[in-house]
Amino acid sequence: MNKLSRFMSVLGPCVVAIFFFAGCSSALSENRQEHVHNMGPDVMPFALAKTTHIFQMTEQGGIERVIVKDPADSEQIRLIQQHLQQEAAAFQKGDYSDPARLHGQGMPGLAALQAGVSRVKVSYATLPDGAEISFETTDIHLLTAIHQWFGAQLSEHGADATYR
To answer: By the 8 A CB rule, do 134 and 27 touch?
Structure first.
């Protein structure tokens, strides 16, 4: 076997592996929204297909709203309100386990929000068509964390979310 043949016998599988893993990485990132949509029922009791997440970044933090697509769907409204009220109470204690379970523990901003729990005001409000959770802080690092966290959720919820 000449040098070129030996080189190709070693390099060939490496090149195939590189293209394989690059393709997998691309496929995984393309499927992230699908993953979140499919895992949503494990974390959220309402139907993602019947609701919209709205992420609004503000100068003080942000507002996450979940509203129904059909204002007559009282069951989905009830489920949204129940869930967001529970989530707001958990977030006030620094418990972000539900978003971490859905999006991953390493999602942007999450660790800072958990660590800075005493410097973020979290409040819940009922809306006629759903509910919202507001996040407020005067800490620039936590403000950035809230915005990063909202951006990651917006990206991963895909068609189930929008920005205002």
So the answer is: no
> Of the candidates 70, 64, 69, 72, which has an alpha carbon nearest to the alpha carbon of residue 91?
64
Nearest-angstrom CA–CA distance, 32 and 40: 12
Strand order in the sheet with 130-136: 121-127, 130-136, 61-68, 51-57, 161-163
Which region holds residue 109: left if phi is over 0, alpha if psi is between -120 and 50, else beta?
A: left
Threshold 0.85, pTM exceeds: no
Asked if residue 125 lies in contact with residue 63, where contact means CB atoms within 8 angstroms, the answer is no
Task: List the Cα angle 89/53/44 in 5-degree steps.
Answer: 55
Q: Which tens digit of pLDDT belongs to each residue from 115-137?
A: 999 999 999 999 999 999 999 99
* Residue where the block lists tokens 């990651």: 152
